[in-house]
Amino acid sequence: MRRRDFLKVAATSATGAVLFAGCGRIGDGVPETEFKIAQPVHTPNDWVYGRDAWFATAAPPEQGGYGLIVRVFEGRAKKVDGNPDFPGVLGKSDARAQALVQELYHPDRITGPQRASTRGGQVQSISWDDALQEVVGILREAGGERAVLITGRPSSSQAAIIAAFRQATGIRHAILEPDEFVALRTAMRRLFGTSMLPIPDLANAAFLLNFSAEFLHGWIAPVALARAYGAFRQGHSGHRGLYYHVGPRLSATAANADRWFPIVPGSEGLVALGIANVLLTEGKLPAERFQPYLAALGLDAARLTSDYTPERVAEASGLGAEQIRELAHALIEHQPAVVIAGTNAAATTNGLFNLVAAFGLNLVLGTVDQPGGLLLNPEPVLPELRVPDDAILNQQQWAQLVEQIRSGSVSTVLVHRANPVYSLPATLGVADALRAAQHVVSFSPFFDETTLLADLVLPDLVWLEQWGLQVPDPGPGYAAVAIQQPVVQPFADGRAFGDVLIQLAQQLGKPLPWASQEEATKTLALGLRQVSGGNIRAGNDSEFLVTLQAQGGWWSEGTRGQAGTPATAIVQPRDPEFAGDAGQYPLLLLPYPSPAIGYGEFAHLPWLQALPEPISTNVWQTWIEVGQRTADELGLTTGDVVRVSTPQGTVELPVYVNPAGQPGIVAIPFGQGHTAFGRYAEGRGLNPLAIVAPQSDPDAGTLAWCATRCRLEKTGRRTRLARFEGMVPAFQLEEFPIVRVMPPSA
Amino acid sequence: MRYVRVLLFVLVVLVIMAVPLALVLARSYFLAPTAQPVKAQPIQFPHQVHVQAIGLDCTFCHRNATTSAQATLPPIELCMQCHKVIPTQGRPELEKLVAAFEQNQPILWNKVHQIPDHTHFVHSVHLSFGFQCSTCHGDVGAMGKPGVQQVRDLRMGDCITCHQQNGARTDCSVCHY
Amino acid sequence: MPRWGMVIDLDRCIGCGACVVACQAENNVPINTEDVYHQRRAIAWIRLERYWEGEFPNIKARYIPVPCMQCTNAPCEPVCPVYATYHTNEGINMQVYNRCIGTRYCAVNCHWHVRFFNFWEPKWPDSLKNQLNPDVTVRSRGVMEKCNFCVHRIVKAEQKAKVEKRELRTDEVTTACAQACPTNAIVFGDLDDPNSAVSKLLAQAEHEGRVYRLLEDLGTDPKVYYLKKVDIEAAAEPAAAH
Q1: Is B28 on the interface with A (CB under 8 A)?
Q2: Which residues constitute the domain of residue B131?
Q3: Which of A176, A184, A728, C242 has the smallest C-beta neighbourhood within 10 Å, fewest atoms?
Q4: Other CB atoms closer than 10 Å to residue A741's CB: what's the count?
Q5: Whether residues B149 and B96 fall in one domain
Q6: Do A739 and C98 touch (CB under 8 A)?
Q7: Are residues B176 and B99 part of one domain?
Q8: Which residues fall within 8 angstroms of residue C20, CB to CB, at 6 or more apart?
Q9: Domain identity same for B104 and B132
Q10: What is the spatial distance between Cα A274 and Cα A209, in angstroms, rounded to a whole number?
Q11: What's the pLDDT score for residue A732?
């Protein structure tokens, strides 16, 4: 007798009849199929009933593009993990990679091509043939120059297909990336002459100085950097890496630092110059090392020594002069040392200067391309795999493009895996421009804000269903390519974006060199066989491909990056500026990317929504973090609803009182505020871009979302914050030290 | 006399309390898997013809029994390798098979051996210790139409007894996780 | 017979939550919706706690991942009236779902609060059910559930070894959280095997004086070992008083 039956009998025969009556049928949720066994008609070769298969594939570019393996059981993807062989990650993964299966089986995936009767109105399903026909018609009519293809950062093989499509049709390509990465790429390109991002060799470093970069939670290579961080702390017996964090907020990453130096937002570059000043005046480093640094910043030694003394820097940055000396001394005492900067540092009105001044310190320390220093990554070994830098638009270029769409000089917009309506500030008026455009075609697998404004939707496959090649950016310091292969049959009637482009070109009479995305991937992959070095030994092409797919990638430790040195001035020192009058708006607003859902691109995945933000432990919503001292002054406690006013607008948000918050600074996480994008993202929280003033960094042209002042007013209302803290009674720290801490052993 | 009344009362209470218990036990007895009639199947598959007459081994069709948790049913493809040359005229059961193959429709069989909830059973381990399929499934090879019947209890008591007799672990977590 | 244990190095832990999501993916833990958080009934077999220390500006936020401690003398076990929670001979504190009648005594008696009760039938949208792990039971309403060191992975590895007629190899099996952990902060293995990663790590950390266990004064002998966080600003602890 089964347990459920027992309960049923017991419940209905004894007093339980009354007690259990209102609780629904026991055993709800047991599907009929539990008592059936399906006998399939065919079984694929690689599909054994009852046994796991692990396939190697690659993470999407916005997660770092590293190698993954996926557990597939009876044709369904179950679990994602890091590829144990792939350089940099060696079998490790993160929450975002784990959640990729939820994208695959998301209940709100678009099931097939759709046409909207009116813009933003009802959609109806159409066939793929009709959908392609219509897009071909649109492209014929619009011609090359009058159409633009907006994508997120494409995978390397997609970049090759898009490049070929561009050549065939003359369409314009625009890549939408978060502003901090646009600024970072600009800085790295100008500073080191490489379009690939560098990676700090943390595993071998003795000291890390980080200016605001969220390098352990998101940022450019979360898994590779986290893995290296583990080795940095405890990987070598005898010495433990030391990490100092300079930044305006005790972020999830900063909480791991040995020492946190709270500063005024945007003063990262200034602090870097203060450190350089100490290093130069104390003469601990050879003076000629300062030449490229000074050249990049358009300074000379005299100006550095006179204008950027620790005392002057201390005044503007909120640190003490001694602290700046301490930072400089730590860089000398602990060698090799590496300096990185990013996130908030890149999103102020002097973002490019902050990045150049901070990363430039690596030149001064002489640790560029040295073990334990900043490793430069080589260009992709095949030129086709390069993601075109000129296609990555900054805020000013987006403004121009949106204006062109509005005015009609660009009549057709194709959007793939980018959500400009959500990701670009409302002041640009993207939504209105798209409404004015003649045709909008979306290739998104989800109805996001942009897709809702499309006439036609040709849903792409999700990453686990596609072929492709990914050059992880940043790579592990040497050449590496991950191969992406479909691990399951497509779950929806989508088509890979590359396939669609190839079919469109075919029907336009301008065929691309490949017949499908799969063929493109394999042809490009065979190009790797011609490159000397590499981990794959194979006698012929098919053996090469099989080995490549089994290993999940190609890498060659001999192919390393090379440093160029900046000859001319890249950027002048610049002070941060904040929108709003300090008297009227006394607080600084500091938005930050959410560790789980980033800038909102992962907001549709329930596991990531439900993952507590490490510091506040809040979930599923937007809140405003107020430091303890500021909260006391305003009489606020966690759960109070406040009115947040900036020169741009006013919103209401619940307060989270952060004991580590700096006085005078309030913080809001990015990621929520979706009005579409599936049941898990829709209608929760707020997109901070709605209240951020349209400030930009004049050097990089990027949006400075960290340059707005604000004011808080109590509404007198309270709300319950969904959060993890308090879920279980907290252990008492005084009686039982839960997290025990010890000083480093000598 | 007083004691008789009390005794009577206690007796009546006990009888009332025993009713649900008796119901439970009776239900358990009458619902025993071996007491069930042969389940109707979408196709009346005669194991007898395939095993006794033709002499196929169990693992010829149930290919993964020795290597995986499930013994698994073969794809219809495998059936058709033989059945495309065997005439189907006038044999309704075979026609159903061919129809399923041609219409690309999987066949949904009714599970005969339904192990209790929250239980994991692994074929491969049991077979690797030398047990025969017939130890649990009985002489399936002799079962003809309408289909297979469960011959062994296969509830927890049965599993545990066998585990104890053969020195296998009887830790809960061996099967329940 | 192995004795399974886990070592969590707090000096490596960065609080990223990869373990939390990996565990949910592996063990069919229902989605913790906003409502569930409001009800304070979120289920996280391994959870990440954050502790504050000090005051601004000398404030520290410290992370600690907390799975079930798999106590050798587990306080949750003797209080179960139906023996639904018990100790396996490999040292895992198991929850037998079909025995559990939902008294929740075990949860009350657990000092680490790592036992979770299914107040409602767990629900997923139909399409997301494709992700569920077939090796792990989906718990129904009214039963307790908890971390069990991914016992299905252990059983699977042991069965594989049996079929291949060999012993379980050192570090052949690992838990989902340890596999995902990007900083290698979580390590899982056999505490009785001197060659296992956990044993080696413990031996070395013991030498450095970094080993401790959560609430070990309660005498339950947990099998999850923590390695102390190293902090340059930490005061040297006085030598053990006893």
Answers
A1: yes
A2: 37-73+115-177
A3: C242
A4: 18
A5: no
A6: no
A7: no
A8: A95, A611, C44, C46, C47, C48, C65, C177
A9: no
A10: 14
A11: 61
